[in-house]
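Example record used in the benchmark description.
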Amino acid sequence: MVNRQSSIENRKYKSRSIAACLLLASQVLLFALGTQVALAQADPARGVAFLPFENRSDFSGAWNVSVEVPRFMSAYVKSQYDMYIVSAPVTEAFRADQTPPLAADDVKFWLRIRRHFGVRFLLTGSVERFDVSRFSTGAPELGSYEAYKGEISFSFEVIDLERLESRGDAVPLTKGAASGEFADRSFALTLLAKPSARTVEFRDLNSIQFGSDDFNRTVIGRACLDAARMFTDELATRIPTLFSTRGIGAGPSGVPDSMEIRFNSKLLRGRIVFLEGEDVFIDLGSEDRVRAGQVVPVYAPNADTVGALPVGSIRVIQLRGPHLSLTRIVAGKDSISTKHSVRVQVID
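Model output (C-alpha cells):
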C-alpha cells in the first residue's frame, strides 16, 4: 500500500514538473516571438540615430550648436519622411548614463546605440560655419542703413551599424556636406539712433529658442532651413534605402525622436504635364520646394481634398526647373495619366 501511494505521488510530481517545464518553455517562446515582432516592427534598417556634432565654427552665442544643429536637421528629415529617428539630445543623454563613461566616437558606444534603440544607421558630423553678420552704413546717431546675413555649413558621415556589428567595419558608408545662406538685403533705415525691428531681432537672438517659429523667421533660421533641405536631399540620394518607405515613428525604446521641433507646412497642388512609360513630369519644381526622393500621391482629376484616395504615387527623380520635375511611377502605373493631379507637402 505504501509503495502504491508512493508511486502515485511520484507520478503527480513528474506531471507537475512536466507542466512547469512546458509553461516555462511556452513563456520563453512567447518572449522570443515578442522580441522578434518588436524588432520587426522597429524595422532597424529604416532607423537613424544622430550624435551631437563637433563645433568647429567661431560661434560663441548662447545656443549649443553642437546639439541644436543636428537636432534641427533630424527634425526636418522627420517632418518630411516620418521615419524612426533618435535625435542628438537623446543619444547624448544615453551616453551620459553609460558606466563606465564612453566617448561619443567610441565604437563600443555606437554598438550600444544599435542594441538599445534598434537603429541601422548612425550619423555624425561637424559644424564648420554658423554665423549671423550685420552690415551697416551711415551715422547711427543720425540715420543709417543696415542689412543682415545668416550662414551655416556642416559636414556629416553615416555609419552602417549593422555592418559594424557583424563585421567590425566602422568605415563610413557615405560622407556629405550641406550649407545654407540667407541675406536680408532690404537695408532697414534707422533714424536718430532708434533701432529697427531687425536690429532688435539681432540683439535678442540669444533669447530666441532654437528651432521655434520665431527662430525660423530669422536670417539664421532661414539659412538653417536651406541647409536642412540640402541635407535631406543629400541623404535621400546617397542612401535611397533609408527613404524607400515611410518610417515607423517612435522606436522600441519609446523615446521621442524629433525633440519638440515642428515645422509649418503647406499643401501644394500640381498636375501631370507629360507622361512616357514610367517617367512623369509634373509642374512643380525647385521654387516650389519639391525635393528629390520625395514620394508624391497622384489623384484623379478634380478629386475633393477631403476624403479623396490617391490612384497611385510617383517619386521625384530630378528637379528640371523652377516649376518642373521629373518623377517616376511607384504605384498605380495603369491608373495614372496626364489628366491627373498631384499634391505635395512642403515646409512653408
